[in-house]
Amino acid sequence: GLCGGEGLSAPGCAAPAAPSPAPPQPRSCSRQPASREGRGGKCRAVHPSPPALLATWGGFWVMAAEQVWFHLSGTVTEPATATEPEMTYKVAISFDRCKITSVTCGCGNKDIFYCAHVVALSLYRIRKPDQVKLRLPISETLFQMNRDQLQKFVQYLITAHHTEVLPTAQKLADEILSSNSEINQVHGAPDPTAGASIDDENCWHLDEEQVREQVKLFLSQGGYYGSGKQLNSMFAKVREMLRMRDSNGARMLTLITEQFMADPRLSLWRQQGTGITEKCRQLWDELGALWVCVVLNPHCKLEEKSCWLRQLRKWGEMDVCPLEDGNYGNELPNITNALTQSSGHSQDSLARPRRTVFTRAIEGCDLHWQDSHLQRIISSDFYVSPSYQREGESLLFNSQGQPLWLEHVPTACARVDALRSHGYPREALRLTVAIINTLRLQQQRQLEIYKHQKKELLQRGATTITNLEGWVGHPLNPIGCLFLTLTEACRLEEENSSGFAAKAEQVHGKALVLGVHPVAHVLDGDESYLSLALEVALMGMGQQRVMPEGLYAQDKVCRNEEQIIARLQDLELDPVLVQTLRKQCILLLEGGPFSGLGEVIHRESVPMHTFAKYLFSALLPHDADLAYKLALRAMRLPVLETTAPSGDVTHPHHLVSVVPSRYPRWFTLGHLESQQCELASTMLTAAKGDMLRLRTVLEAIQKNIHSSSLIFKLAQDAFKIATPADSNSDTTLLNVALELGLQVMRMTLSTLNWRRREMVRWLVTCATEVGVRALVSILQSWYSLFTPTEATSIVAATVMSHNTILRLSLDYPQREELASCARTLALQCAMKDPQNCALSALTLCEKDHIAFETAYQIVIDAASTGMTYTQLFTIARYMEHRGYPLRAFKLASLAMTHLNLAYNQDTHPAINDVLWACALSHSLGKNELAAIIPLVVKSVHCATVLSDILRRCTMTAPGLAGIPGRRNSGKLMSTDKAPLRQLLDATISAYINTTHSRLTHISPRHYGEFIEFLSKARETFLLAQDGHIQFAQFIDNLKQIYKGKKKLMLLVRERFG
User: Fold this and answer.
1) 887 membership: H or E segment, kind and range
2) Global pTM?
3) Nearest C-alpha neighbor of 426 from the set 377, 469, 390
């Protein structure tokens, strides 16, 4: 746009009402942040440097540039590219009082910013005014023509553009020739080149329809495809316009807000009862904050504010209007209330049942800038208290005579933000310093109050929070506003210092230097704007405040805290900043109930873990004692303690993995606990090698952290730090890791935890790294740390492994001590849980005869009570594998008594165990086989399994195992004699019963399978002396009983006669 000087408007620059010999002179432009090319939509920067215009604009050619008073026109040629031909566009620009009021370009591009061709023509006029023909208004030119010249002028104009203007020309001619026409009732005629009247409203050209369309498009994309960034860019554009005092800023914000309110998702979210998405919620927050800035414009007209107030109320009353924190019934102080630190407000004055995102802007409309004290603060660098103070003036200045501004802190900061946003950085800085001086005085008075209440509060161990809303996470972002105001002032100082250093000597050395440091005289001693920024950030972050209601409000507290800390971490701490840091940390520790780091805090106070982690890291190189004192104080999380008195930190009662039920819920509790863990890990890392500090940190962890998974993480962190790959282990930190691991074991012993096995294995690894005494200790106290199964299968087995012995380089006595402890553990576990631990116990006790016998007896004693056949078979197979076949036989026999195989369970998983048990008995000899066959007959009713056992027993002679002291006859056993006779009879009986059972519900598709089954049955029948007779009788019986199944019986006759 065409503008005056560095600003976007020059209020004193008005267009002349009549032609004048001094035509308007457009000057430099700083409005356009970006523009798009004519066809491709590619953005170009629009801040040209002094070289020639054509080079700056990628070869754009500006031709036939002509200015007719307040109207500039010309043609802009865009050179050809590899894919596009050369294009020429006609551009026309109207301006009024240093503002572009309308633009047209033949490129047809639609955007909320001017296209590159408009900007090119504007810059051409600014850079090369001598090459632009300047004309008087067209009305003045026409005035100089006679009648013939006028007629010729009109006819030539119509001829040149007859297709476009002929209908309009004819219509105008008809109206002029009609004496009663409206056009003849008005004196004179309009002139688009002469400019507006000085009383007419003038504002920058803004394509309102295009703004609406773009916002609507970005909202419809729901935060995807970068639409969130695009909307934030539009918000930034509004802020830029406000800073340049461009009246279109509020217009553009109104257009954006209208589209936000028309977003169809608002109704959907309200109907479904779901919250607005986080990305969209942040956009609404910025929208509300921008409106606060707009209504707090210190130079806006009263009618403008009234108009905005009506519009804001209209939006706020709509059902779909988003609420400030997503919850109804919240009680927050009105933006115009005085200091909330005074507790004299009644509940009625604080209750705000429905606060929308526009409520603070609506409240801001009640604020004004006419207060004389406020005016003096922001307008003068030298405003101090008078030597004689009248009544009431003592509240306006501190003891040093510096002005104070006593107002609700977020409201006062909103004023600062408004001053910054509307292009008054010096005024914003002056008010910021006054607010900080007020906060300092407030902090001093709070300390004095606490000194009188300290004894009572410490005895009671409780406090109440007087801050109903915290400054961190506040919708107006008061701390961030003050911090940015101060750091921006520092940056401007540096830029000005470097830019004017060369010129300072030319102006008597001091004049420009003083200008570089505005309001610097109000700073005390070695203070700087950076030290003030650090101080106010620490004050705000350390404020004790109640956790707000609702997920979004709580998440915003965490997010805002992280944003402020990220800015603090960018500061390089020089001696002045370190002094400020130490001073504030001491004040926070001594701040009592007014500080989140005071000795006594409310149960629902926002935790200080993230803040304390920053303070610890920043303080550690300069004052380690203070750093640890502060971080240890911040470790508490009283909301996870039981119903002990609120704020009681001396005798807390811990809960394990339990979140107490309360309203409102702490939705961000998981994040807060993880931050508590991060603080503890930071302290553990820093305390490496310092036994006293490590012990103190360990006690704080055990006292304040209630999550087993987080303590386990800390244990792992400590172990990792204590065992670097390139150096020796740190014993003290290793012991801390071990103690934390032991605590995790105790916490999770009786609870379900999917990481339990990982935790147990890690603890053994950690104890191994600590040494043999640690291993002995966990083996001896296993019952308080592990389940019997874990103790035998993981702990003792790992301890006794070859790798562990090699890792520890143990001598013989140490190995024997570990082995003895492991065996004792194994026997104890086997007694407590024989079903799951017996086999592990036997394995661990193999090398000690007495212990092994004891373990075996435990198994025998438990076999008849709680052990299953699967467990007994497994142990029996182990015994055989270890060379104890007789003991294996005994256990297998016991297992058989627990087994029951039905006739149709021919695929049961225990069949292999039964076959193995019978094979073992057969290999031991006739007596063992005779002992197990009755058990088999009693337990197994499946004919095919019995016939398989029978076949195996008849293939080889019994007793092939070669038990010492026994004789083996080497003869095959007969099925006509015991013990196989009993097995044969049971097998034949099983085939008969199974046959009848299968025929009860047989279908034709199973006939073939049934005939094969009868064939196997015949093989078993024929093992008996009269087997062929029994089988024939069996077949005849089937034919008689099932004669109705003709097709099946036909198949039986064909196969068996």
Assistant:
1) helix 885-896
2) 0.78
3) 377
